[in-house]
Amino acid sequence: MTPKWTRMLHVDSPVLTKPFWWLSALAAIGLLLSGYREVAGLGAASGLNDGYSWGMFKNFNVTVLTALGSGGFALGLLVFTLNKRKYHTLLRTGLLTSILCYTAGMIALAVDVGRPWNLFFMADPFVWNVHSILFEVALCMTAYVMICLDFENLAPLLDRLEDLRFPPIVRELAGHARVFVKNAYPIGLALALTLPAMHQSSLGTLMWQSGPRVHPTWQTPLLPALYLIMAFVLGLAFVDVVLLASCAAWKRPIDRELMGKLSDVVSWLGIVWLAVRFGDLLGRGQLGAALRLDYYGVLFA
Using one digit for the tens of pLDDT, what is the confidence trace for 155-174? Predict the structure, then answer.
């Protein structure tokens, strides 16, 4: 019989393991190098310059990490908008992957931006450049992390604080906080479904704005839609990977029925993305160029 996953199961497993310490050491090295970059400048650290700070890492820390962190967004859409309540069990995992990926992306964004001191101007609406696509991305990402994801991840924390191991005053405050979270959740949810849709599509707009600097095989007005659909695909697929890795690490049974249905959603979304992608190439007359056996054709494949 296929086991059914439920929430709030206690996992009796150590946290401070050897992989934890190895990864912590790697993170510490990264933070030290980030500190060097802030002191020495982007040019000395990367070979780029402070005026033109774009590099391969931009696509990783913003595009990839926010797409991998879209699991909470995609699952929220499935559960609360499309009323697919069977995925509710997976929602906390999706929200956890979202806050981890987005926070890492925001930290990396502060490191690789050319003039990081200008980030403080985001707090002053009177100097906002409302015509900047990158500003819209930065503002929506910041609001999504600091308001929506922090708020949505409060519920698991409050569950832990209401445990009998904590003093009565802590449990009482957690109970009051839970009432607030319950009453404000519809507003937080509305924001959590709006902000990611805005900045994921705007990332596509950012590349479309680059004009002829992007090869015609990839340059299309449909980039915002392609970015948004791919965020759903990668976000849900990453939740799949995290769940499988967690079950393997903690020797937990797998809810094969639920995982199978989630994988079906990922597959169908992937098919939709491919249909839009190839339909766009065909409509713009670029299908032949994409399938040509040259450098760009190989990259496309």
Answer: 888 888 887 778 888 888 88
Alpha-carbon gap, residue 67 to 101, rounded angstroms: 9
Specify the pLDDT at position 209.
Answer: 87
259: nearest Cα among 249, 270, 272, 246: 246
- CA 260, 266, 268, 271 dihedral sign is negative
| Closest-CA residue to 125 (of 113, 135, 111) | 135
* pLDDT value, residue 1: 52
Q: Are 249 and 92 in contact (CB under 8 A)?
A: no
Residues composing the chain: 301
Selection from 138, 159, 150 nearest residue 100 by Cα: 150
Rounded CA-CA distance 193/95 in Å is 12
Residues of the chain with pLDDT under 50: none
Query: Residue 105 is which amino acid?
Result: G
Q: Which of 70, 28, 108 is nearest to 199 (CA)?
A: 70
Q: Residue 227 in contact with residue 165, Cβ under 8 Å? A: no
Reported as a single tens digit per residue, the pLDDT across 70-112 is 999 999 999 998 988 889 889 999 999 999 999 988 888 778 7
Q: Where are the beta strands (DSSP E) in 112-235?
A: none
Torsion of CA 46, 51, 55, 58, to 10 degrees: 110
Q: 98 to each of 101, 148, 182, 269, 298, how far by Cα in Å?
A: 5, 11, 20, 19, 32
Q: Can you read off the two tokens belonging to residue 69?
A: 């962190």
* CA 237/CA 242 separation, integer angstroms: 9
